[in-house]
Amino acid sequence: MIRLYLTFALALCAGFLFDAAAQRPTDDVLYLKNGWVLRGKLLPAAAPESVSIQTNDGNTFVFPQTDVLETKKEPALRYLNIRYRDRGYAHFTEMGVMASSNNVNELGVTTSAFTFHTVNGYKFNQWFYTGLGAGVDLYASQTFIPVFASARGDFTRRGILIPYYYIDGGWGFNGTTNLPGKRQRGGAHFAAGLGMKVLFNGNAGFLLSVGYYLQQTAIEETHDSGIRRTETDYQRVAIRAGFAF
What we know:
Porin; SH3 type barrels; 1 helix
């Protein structure tokens, strides 16, 4: 069931990300016969047989129709590569929920969880960022402290909506208080998914992502006959929001 939820969530997210990325901002572009080119927004005609345009700097111009060569819609130059940063230090902080199917843990408690992660690292280019992260994952009966390496990259560098991927891998330390005769261990930590960044400036922006989340754990119980070890894989769909800068 969890695979079905994950497949649906990723397909929905991917469709949204690439559709949103394709909707680039545009300008109305007015070409005049004297060689002038004005970019902005076409306005209702101020007079018969005329063309009015408000340029991106806020000025309004009116030209006779006979002076106009043509009008077009083109990608807005003010959004192209101006605010996007190719390389440098980058920080990510995200929090959210990790949804599950009706899985329960050894205590019979549903193991959906809350997650909070922060990552610091370096962006080498559009496609590759790497860093080290840590966080806290709060399950119903266990607490994990994941420490991991993170890789990320952007699918485009244009516009204010930047779709991206992420892959995290490391170790989740079990911070749950141990009971007499029972030790709760950590295990491998892995996460991967897709997201959308609403770019503010440089690398700063608001983040929204969905992806697959795995945390392995084990419980060691001491008995007269020895130690019995029970291993569990917590597999979740993580839905997170946060900020980057």
